[in-house]
Amino acid sequence: MTEHHAEAPDLAAVVAGIERTNELLTRVLAEVATTPATHAVFVDAGYAYAAAGRLVVGSEDRRAIELDAEGLIEAFIDKARTIFPDSRLLRVYWYDGARRRIHTAEQQAIAELPDVKVRLGNLNAHNQQKGVDSLIRTDLETLARHRAISDAVLVGGDEDLVSAVEAAQGYGARVHLWGIEAPGGRNQADPLLWEVDSRRTFDRDFCEPYVTRRAAPESLADAAPYRGPIPDREEVRFVGARVASEWLGARGPDSLAELLPGHPYLPGAVDQELLVAAEALLGLSLRGHADLRRALRDGFWDHLRMRF
Fold first, then answer.
1. I need a labelling partner for 293 at 20 to 30 A (CA). Which of 32, 169, 237, 238 fits?
2. Which tens digit of pLDDT belongs to each residue from 165-176?
């Protein structure tokens, strides 16, 4: 009976294969080593104004705030330079709102700064930004997809930015959330804090050089910034329930049935309607109060679920 022995592998061929693999790895590593890391800074101007204004001068009303945007942007650039010493800056993106997307004089001055790109959403009748979050998502996702950035610094606090963070991370970019200290509670949504790769908060000492109170002209005397006490979560929750009662009375049970499967999330149009109605009742912008906006939604849902 003849025995069949497996042929021994050709040692020369094995060595040649290993050498080809090593050569390929060497070329890849050399290419990676010569490709500089790149970062960009994405600033939600509405958040910066509201959070820095509340912290430094006690007001979120932009008419009451003089912001040295150039100085603040330069401070962000310097901070990023120390955190990412081996990375180059692509640019700073400054997201703001304007009527019919026409630059104000202040926005024009910011747009003329080196390494700064101003991106404008609309302002509605209540001076609230519209479309800014979608602009941030588009830029973050596009730059990450094309490997134009390895790190993204996001200065903002709105929960709607979570999808932008997820989109960028899906393409391998790291997202770092920067915020401004809140005098009480938080001004950044928890889901956003959970999603990012790192977090950093700037205190009053950092912000104070760039924020001063603006003297209101006589014609704006009747439009003084809100100076009353900030409502607590229970007050805002009650307002959310009140708005829900009015919403349900106007829409009816069919609209409620369509809404319930999405709990605890609200469609964007309904969430915006809730926010506008609540701010009118409170006499206060909730833009910089992520914790109060969550309480508002909780109160809205509490009332609707009791009626189901």
1. 169
2. 999 999 999 999
Q: What is the pLDDT of residues 200-227, one digit of tens each?
A: 999 999 999 899 887 654 443 344 444 4
Q: Token pair for residue 127?
A: 């001076």
Residue 130 pLDDT > 60: yes
Contact 76, 155 (CB under 8 A): yes
Half-sphere exposure of 300 (CA within 13 A, CB side): 28
Tokens 């914790």 correspond to 291
CA 208 to chain centre: 22
Strand-by-strand arrangement of the 198-202 sheet: 129-130, 116-123, 87-98, 37-44, 151-155, 174-180, 198-202
Contact assessment for residue 293 and residue 271, using Cβ atoms and an 8 Å cutoff: no
